[in-house]
């Protein structure tokens, strides 16, 4: 394994070998380009999967010497597994993607060209909602000069049209990432919290890749149990921390308000994924959103309606479209 790796594609995984295979297939498909093959490594961090993930990755390792595999002795949780994948990486830049994400064929080549041009803090890529594997496997040619947009600041990036809240959208400077304190972070927000902190005060360029290059969203397992509602709560807390990392009060207040204004909609979504609508969890929402009585009132009206009826209403709405 070479030491001059430009990009590490870091894939945290747990018990989804069937998705991981598709993900890896579309990466190694791009190894026919020698520059791509010699400039990247793939780091798979397995969170103690009970399925055949180990055997699957070994089949790729027998064919390619730039695929690294690390298996945790026990399930560390999503956040720690994501962190572990970056710590184990050797690349100058890291790209965390989900095991159910697919990189567009041809995209790695243009990304490497951008990263080789100058040292940057972050390259945020554009994404597709997942359509089908065939479309992702068809090789696309990207014009580097037309691809890149520079951002003046972290605030401009986070307020831009680009999706900055999905796992696979950020390619980041690993050395800069390692300087961020990782002892305390909000649950399920680690990958974003560290990146947003590191870009708040950096003088290195922040770039965005205009054409979509990543297919995401095959599996919404991250929302099992209505995790989106917890994410909303923890996300507000993490946003408030950014005041110590160069972000303005105006920006932070606007983002905190944005989280609060989506409380009712997020509650409905969480209930369709079997959120635990207990008094304890309602009290959690009241403590976090007490400054938003209108949102809390609307949320309270639907909170204890059985999840089954909310699911049925969602199905009926879909069938009528």
The biggest beta sheet reads: 9 strands, mixed
Please report the distance between the alpha carbons of the first and last residues. Answer: 53 Å
> Could you please say which CATH topology of the largest domain applies here?
Spore Coat Polysaccharide Biosynthesis Protein SpsA, Chain A
SS elements, strand count: 9
What is the correct CATH architecture of the largest domain?
Answer: Alpha-Beta Complex
How much helix, percentage-wise, in residues? 40-55%
Order of helices and strands: EHHEHEHEEHEHHEHEHHEHHHHHH
- Percent of residues in beta strands? 15-25%
Overall tally of domains: 2
Category from helices, strands and their pairing:
alpha/beta
Sequence-ordered SSE layout with sheet pairings:
Layout: E1 7-13, H1 17-28, H2 34-39, E2 40-46, H3 53-61, E3 67-71, H4 78-87, E4 93-96, E5 102-103, H5 107-117, E6 122-129, H6 133-137, H7 144-147, E7 148-151, H8 154-158, E8 170-173, H9 174-178, H10 190-200, E9 206-216, H11 227-241, H12 249-261, H13 263-271, H14 279-289, H15 293-303, H16 307-320
Parallel strand pairs: 1-2, 1-4, 2-3, 6-9
Antiparallel strand pairs: 4-8, 5-9, 6-8, 7-9
Helix pairs in contact: 1-3, 11-12, 11-13, 13-15, 14-15
């Amino acid at each position: 394994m070479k030491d001059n790796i430009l990009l590490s594609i870091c894939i945290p995984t747990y018990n989804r070998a069937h998705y991981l295979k598709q993900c890896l297939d579309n990466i190694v498909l791009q190894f026919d380009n020698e520059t791509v093959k010699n400039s990247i490594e793939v780091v798979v961090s397995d969170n103690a999967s009970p399925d055949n993930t180990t055997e699957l990755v070994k089949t790729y390792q027998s064919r390619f010497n730039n695929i690294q595999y690390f298996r945790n002795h026990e399930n560390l949780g999503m956040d720690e597994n994501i962190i572990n994948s970056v710590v184990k990486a050797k690349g100058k830049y890291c790209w965390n993607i989900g095991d159910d994400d697919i990189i567009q064929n041809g995209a790695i080549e243009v990304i490497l060209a951008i990263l080789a041009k100058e040292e940057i803090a972050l390259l945020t890529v554009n994404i597709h909602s997942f359509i089908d594997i065939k479309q992702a496997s068809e090789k696309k040619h990207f014009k580097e000069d037309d691809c890149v947009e520079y951002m003046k600041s972290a605030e401009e990036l986070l307020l831009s049209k680009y999706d900055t809240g999905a796992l696979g959208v950020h390619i980041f400077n690993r050395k800069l990432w390692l300087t961020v304190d990782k002892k305390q972070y909000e649950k399920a927000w680690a990958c974003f919290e560290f990146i947003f902190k590191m870009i708040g005060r950096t003088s290195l360029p922040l770039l965005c890749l205009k054409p979509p290059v990543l297919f995401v969203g095959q599996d919404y397992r991250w929302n099992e149990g209505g995790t989106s509602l917890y994410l909303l709560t923890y996300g507000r807390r993490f946003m408030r921390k950014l005041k110590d990392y160069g972000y303005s009060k105006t920006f932070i207040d606007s983002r905190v308000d944005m989280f609060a204004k989506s409380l009712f909609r997020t509650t409905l979504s969480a209930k369709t994924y079997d959120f635990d609508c207990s008094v304890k969890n309602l009290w959690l929402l009241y403590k976090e959103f007490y400054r938003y009585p209108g949102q809390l009132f609307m949320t309270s009206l639907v909170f204890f309606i059985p999840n089954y009826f909310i699911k049925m209403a969602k199905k009926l709405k879909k069938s009528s479209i």
